[in-house]
Amino acid sequence: MSASGIRKITISNLSPNSQDFLIVGVIIAKRAPKSFYSRRDGNARGVWGFTLRDSPADYINVTAWGSPDYIEFLSSTYKVGDVVDITNTRVITRNNDDQFQPTVTSCMELVFNEDISQICLHDEDDWDGFTSLLHLPTKPPSNYLNLSDIKVHGKLLSGQHTNILVAVQRVGEVREISKEGKELKVLEVIVMDKTSAGFSVQIWDEDMIQRAIQWKPRYTVLFMSDIRVSWNTFKRCMCGTIGIKSIITENPSTREAKSLANYASSAPLQSQDIIDNMAANMPNPETIVNVMSCFSVIKQAFSGESSECFTALVYAVVHEFDLDGLQNVVNSKCNTCNETVPFTTCENSSCIMKGAKTLFNYNIRISLMDHTAKLINCRLPDNVATSVLGMQAESFVQLSESQRISLKWKYLLKKTASRLVILPATKEGSPCFSVVDLTLVTFQEYASKVLIY
Ligand SMILES: [Zn+2]
């Protein structure tokens, strides 16, 4: 067949009768190559699959067959993001319920054969038109589940494929483990969205691991289509796995992804910060009505039954409220260089030039006690401390010692209704307690509500 007889065609125009065509597209996903012995002639054969896209609406799976060496060569040569020319492939109708390939829009599939088909890098300067397709999710932009829904409805979804839109929170270390006699690599990536953080996604595919180690916490946003979610009995929470059906779109150019990127750039990433942020932004503290004793809060926080945070209304006496002690009650930071500064202004010369100001934030931990137990290290987030003390941290630092002492005695050893949000202990860390609301109560109310077990 002469090259002149070959015409260029798009994925949308393919039919089972298409012949002698050239197709140009960008590789948006690839699977690991496999080799096996043919049942027909006993010869070793290799197979490799990848997904090709040539327009926002059109993407297709390609299956390449050949000797194991050739297939290994192909799969190591071409990577996600490459724009390729493919000629002399066969077109077949796609199997609708294929569990071993990503879901695509084309009803066709391309079969590439070592003996008759050719692939090479596209040699024209229109790559940009194709590579911009790498930022379009392969599912409708709003077709994804929130991480909090996956956590809450976890066990119902276990074993299923779903889509998520997330920002990278942490990229772990690549670990090597042996499984069924094979040496495998695995990488855990922790992701977040606006509803939840700390969701673990495992990656077993080597090429995908190479992509993932480039991802940047807070900056990389990912649309993950068809990742498998399942209950992890070791971690006691829902986790995701990137598999052969998954397509990962990096930094999608959608409105939803831009909004998440904006959120992730400044979202809290440490457990205590996350829980403080939740406590500080809880819209209706009065909806926390489940009364718990200090002992039952501690018991649930250490039970290991779930890693999901919970809320509690605790009737307890404020046992420590160290407003005049040695601990730093107020943090002061320069608003320009973000360094901690003494109560004056930043001494950094460039900050002085820019007219930097000092920002004050409460940093208060209290203890709550009833006759069952004592809850130590409960954080009062800045806005909660402001409303409890009736003044901003900026004004607090101006108070005299005697004024601080009298403010302290407004709460110390007094009976309160304390609304808390609690992040249970995990394998990585201790539980975190954050106060959503702290209200003085009368002896009568306290006596009628406090739990005795
Ligand atoms: Zn400064």
Automatic annotation (TrEMBL):
Keywords: DNA-binding, Meiosis. GO terms for molecular function: single-stranded DNA 3'-5' DNA exonuclease activity; single-stranded DNA binding. The keyword Methyltransferase does not apply. It holds the Pfam family OB_MEIOB_N. The keyword Ligase does not apply. GO terms for biological process: resolution of meiotic recombination intermediates. Residues 5-139 form the MEIOB-like N-terminal domain. InterPro entries: MEIOB, NA-bd_OB-fold, OB_MEIOB_N. It comes from the Eukaryota. Belongs to the MEIOB family. This is MEIOB-like N-terminal domain-containing protein. It comes from Rhynocoris fuscipes.
